[in-house]
């Protein structure tokens, strides 16, 4: 039996949690500035033959999604998370990390990076090895294959994050989007000159709505303290509508093309979507390039640094607070802090005589 040609980058089982009948879903499309009610779930968040670069990948992803769907349904029904270290806990973590990596916006970011590097090679020094230039210009590796090759490392560094379930008991529902896992870093809010959203960054947080009433949060438990419900382990009930609106704004600013929601469209929600459209970043990847610098052996060297900036919203401090021992550390030092120590031979050179002067900064 042949594999289906429609490969979903946000699973249908997930979107059905935001549908009243598990067949149709309401959406807002940013590019067209239009609302569509009762759109077919099957026609959302897919590309033809997206996973065809690796035979059997679509089937393996289906197995992962099936396991995740069982766990997520259990979390929604029971309003509780699986114990840390169990198979169910691991299934949930794997799903979240994979979901962050597999969307069209993630692919677009990889394409943007490849295009930028090709441009740098084209205008690079004449002494650049011809073989390197040829390999760079002719590389046709699918971006998703490159992204997936890094998933084991992502899983390793994400595994120390704490899971927490937010249960929404306000009059508004959680919404989701076509890039539903949102990364943030309350600890590093205000840092704009470097990336602070990597899986290993100190203070990282990740948010994934599971349904209109449930949201999964991953966070750095060494850096933050989260207030939970009395008698419940890693569960917090939200009663302040401002908290729900904050998480919905994250979705609206992070989505690639569409927002998805269960509620009927009303004037207030229309205004929210259009206000969010005006606030959405025009580009998501910042590239910083230095001027060429000469090494002691006469060779020339240049640094290209790319990062995804924090979304233009501050997280409400009502729910999650920075621990006292970390709050005293100056902001300019926080962006260089990581949760895991890399082996010494993987660190960049420290104390080099070469000084790199910034040449250009671009947002794409």
Structure notes:
By secondary structure, the chain is of the alpha+beta class. The chain has one domain (6-363). Helix content is 33%, strand content 22%. The chain has helices at residues 12-16, 57-78, 87-101, 104-122, 130-138, 143-149, 151-158, 241-254, 267-279, 324-327, 331-334, and strands at 6-8, 24-29, 34-40, 46-48, 162-168, 176-177, 182-184, 205-211, 214-219, 224-226, 235-238, 258-261, 285-290, 293-294, 300-301, 304-308, 320-322, 358-363. The protein has a 5-stranded mixed beta sheet with strand order 7-8-9-5-11, with helices on one face. A 4-stranded antiparallel beta sheet has the order 3-2-12-6, covered by helices on one side. A hairpin with a 4-residue loop joins strand 2 and strand 3. Helix 3 packs across helix 7 (151-158) and helix 4 (104-122) crosses helix 6 (143-149). It starts with 5 loop residues before the first strand and ends with a strand.
Short key terms for the protein model shown above:
five-stranded mixed beta sheet, 11 helices, four-stranded antiparallel beta sheet, globular, 18 strands, alpha+beta, 364 residues, 22% strand
């Amino acid at each position: 039996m042949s594999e289906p040609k429609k490969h979903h980058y946000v699973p249908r089982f997930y979107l059905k949690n935001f549908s009243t009948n598990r067949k149709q879903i309401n959406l807002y499309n940013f590019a067209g500035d239009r609302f569509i009610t009762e759109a077919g779930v099957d026609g959302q968040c897919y590309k033809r033959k997206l996973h065809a670069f690796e035979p059997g990948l679509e089937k393996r992803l289906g197995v992962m999604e099936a396991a995740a769907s069982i766990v997520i349904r259990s979390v929604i029904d029971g309003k509780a998370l699986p114990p840390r270290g169990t198979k169910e806990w691991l299934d949930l973590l794997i799903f979240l990390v994979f979901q962050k990596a597999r969307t069209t916006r993630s692919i677009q970011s990889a394409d943007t990076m490849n295009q930028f590097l090709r441009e740098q090679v084209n205008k690079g020094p004449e002494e650049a090895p011809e073989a390197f230039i040829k390999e760079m210009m002719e590389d046709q590796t699918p971006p998703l294959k490159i992204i997936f090759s890094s998933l084991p490392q992502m899983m390793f560094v994400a595994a120390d994050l704490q899971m927490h379930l937010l249960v929404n008991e306000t009059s508004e529902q959680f919404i989701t989007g076509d890039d539903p896992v949102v990364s943030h870093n309350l600890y590093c809010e205000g840092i704009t000159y470097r990336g602070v959203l990597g899986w290993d960054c100190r203070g990282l947080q990740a948010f994934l709505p599971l349904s209109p009433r449930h949201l999964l949060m991953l966070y750095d438990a060494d850096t933050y303290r989260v207030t939970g419900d009395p008698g419940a382990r890693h569960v917090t009930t939200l009663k302040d509508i401002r908290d729900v609106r904050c998480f919905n704004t994250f979705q609206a600013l992070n989505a690639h093309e569409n927002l998805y929601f269960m509620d009927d469209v009303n004037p207030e929600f229309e205004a929210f979507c259009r206000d969010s459209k005006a606030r959405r970043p025009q580009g998501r990847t910042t590239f910083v390039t230095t001027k060429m610098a000469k090494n002691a052996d006469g060779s020339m060297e240049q640094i290209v640094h790319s990062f995804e900036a924090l979304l233009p919203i501050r997280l409400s401090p009502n729910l999650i607070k920075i621990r006292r021992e970390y709050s005293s550390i100056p902001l300019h030092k926080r962006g260089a802090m990581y949760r895991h120590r890399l082996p010494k031979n993987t660190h960049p050179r420290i104390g080099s005589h070469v000084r790199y002067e910034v040449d250009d900064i671009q947002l794409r």
